[in-house]
Amino acid sequence: MSLPLIERALQFDNRTAIVTLNAEYSYRQLLNSSARAAAGLLNGRNDLTEARVAFLTPPGFEYAAVQWGIWRAGGIAVPLAVSHPAPELEYVIADSDAEIVVAHPDFAGKLRPVAHKLHRRFVTTPELLSATASRQLPQVEPQRRAMIVYTSGTTGKPKGVVSTHQNIQAQVTAMVSAWGWSADDRILHVLPLHHVHGIVNVLTTPLWVGASCFILPKFNAEQVWQIFETGQITAFMAVPTIYARLIAAWDAALPERRQAMSAACVQMRLMVSGSAALPVSVLEKWRQISGHTLLERYGMTEIGMGLSNPLRGERVPGHVGRPMPGVELRLVDEAGLPVDAPNTPGEIQVRGPGVFREYWQRPQATAQAFQDGWFRTGDTALRRPDGVYRILGRNSVDIIKTGGFKVSALEIEEVLRTHPAIRECAVVGVPDPEWGERVCAALVLETGASLAAEGLRGWAKERLAPYKVPSEILVLDDLPRNAMGKVTKPALKKMNFSDT
Ligand code: MLC
Ligand code: AMP
Fold it and tell me: Which CATH number goes with the domain that contains 404?
């Protein structure tokens, strides 16, 4: 027996698995290509035995073929981000200790030198996908580690979240039952494929049920509307920023087109928002445009989906519903005691088969992330008397959510501090209607130094992903501090940020 995901795909055979702008691929083609990729990765070995394989391909068929190939060869998939500059890619490859680095030809120029520098085997996707499939692939038990997704935390550099095949299956099956997935679904995929929303919710789940996934290489509001208007899509999942962009595109359209756009949404069965708080104003406007009350759910890389509004029944704006199937969830007060009374804030803690196994090679961080077997999310919420949860915010001011991406203020500060003109800095997330939060940086410069905001942004882009580059930069004589001399970020967040 191979992995259930693969066994199931054998039955879906010539049904359509993946659609791109240029082609359609069946489950059979995905199985054949991933078998070749597996053989190419194994390169004569019997089993990768959890070797890490870092891979960088734009969203599309090759991504799925390589991911499945890694799994079928017994390896751990480490997805890299197409938007990340070389230093961030190097960090992930080195931290995960990836043995093999796979790149789509579009990214070979960027990744090959990194792989060579770190002495890793480097291979391109065409090379892998044209390998000769071997007759036998290893037996991969679901308890094995399957994937490492890098996520920002309050400890500076991102940590690798390790999920087993079982963890992913638990996350997927919870979504199948909660959201009524079926083989007749056809979802439009517009998300990056280095985070769970794009990887698990919108790619693995449809492939688990025999549905089709229409993958765009990158989000583009106009293209999304055009695809909706073909009437082929049944489900859509995105972050609030993307819904805000779709609303802006609808607003900008001519009245006759608007009608067609709205009519196209009405035929769809499910529209989900998550990864960041959905502003009620966006929910309301989307309801007027599409006739859908967005199903808001709450999740995290470490747990998959934790809370969800219902598929059928009342969806409460500004709330994230009740625990997903199989998810045990509790609130805990500052003393670490469970909060049982309704309407009382506490930290969300989660237990269940979808909860990740460990932070890669960080036993201390893993131990600290759990309290008596419960994963500490770092998010604060309250539960209404009817059991519906509301997210109140995050415990740490150093975690920023921008465009649905989790970003660590400390990681950005660490990079900014390496700039020769910067003596001190503090990074905060400032509320923003489009991005949720905007990354803003306050700087204190070295005596006599000067720094133009654009110049600094250009410098930062070579070292950080675009969504981590401060959109506003404020130069101050000193940072706001409390009586102990410690920087007070809440005070900083209230400052009027605009480039100086
Ligand atoms: C990009 N830009 C930003 C920015 N991101 N500016 C401010 N804040 C940000 N966050 C700037 C770029 O520098 C660039 O500027 C311009 O915007 C266009 O850049 P881009 O990279 O093309 O951005 P765009 O495609 O517009 O990105 C918007 C987006 C993207 C919403 C499509 O942010 C996105 O894909 N978000 C999804 C994140 C996601 O999947 N999260 C799930 C995490 S899992 P210039 O000047 O260069 O033009 C998780 C668990 C769960 O959270 O519950 O799901
Ligand atoms: P990540 O670490 O990238 O997986 O992001 C997970 C974090 O996103 C959670 O810990 C929350 O802070 C946030 N998040 C996800 N969904 C929601 C939501 N519906 N409302 C508010 N915050 C959310």
Answer: 3.30.300.30
Helices 4-12, 165-179: crossing angle, 10 deg rounding: 50
In this structure, which residue's CA is closest to atom 23 in ligand 2?
A: 276
pLDDT band at 155 (very low <50, low <70, confident <90, very high): confident
266-317 confidence digits (pLDDT tens): 999 999 999 999 999 999 999 999 999 999 999 999 999 999 999 999 999 9
Work out the number of other CB atoms within 10 angstroms of the CB of residue 95. 19
Residue 438 covered by a domain? yes
Q: Which of 141, 170, 190 is the last residue of a domain?
A: 141
Q: Is residue 465 part of a domain?
A: yes
- CB of 467 closer than 6 angstroms to any ligand 1 atom: yes
For residue 101, is it within any domain? yes
Q: Which of 294, 347, 355 is nearest to 324 (CA)?
A: 355
Query: From the CA of 371, how far away is ligand 2's center (Å)?
Result: 20
**Cβ of 103: how many Cβ atoms within 10 Å?**
25
172: three-class secondary structure by DSSP: helix
Token look-up 């999740």 returns 299
Which residue's CA is the closest to the ligand 2 atom numbered 21? 277
CA of 41 to the centre of ligand 2 (A): 34
The answer to the question of residue 25 being in a domain is yes
- 3-state class (DSSP) for residue 295: strand
Ligand nearest to the CA of 194: 1
Of the listed ranges 13-17, 105-109, 493-497, the one predicted with least confidence: 493-497
What's the structural domain count of the chain? 2
What range does the domain containing 53 cover?
Answer: 4-141
Question: To test ligand 1's pocket by mutation, which of 193, 200, 301, 405 has the most ligand atoms within 8 angstroms of CB?
Answer: 405
Tokens 């197409």 belong to: 82
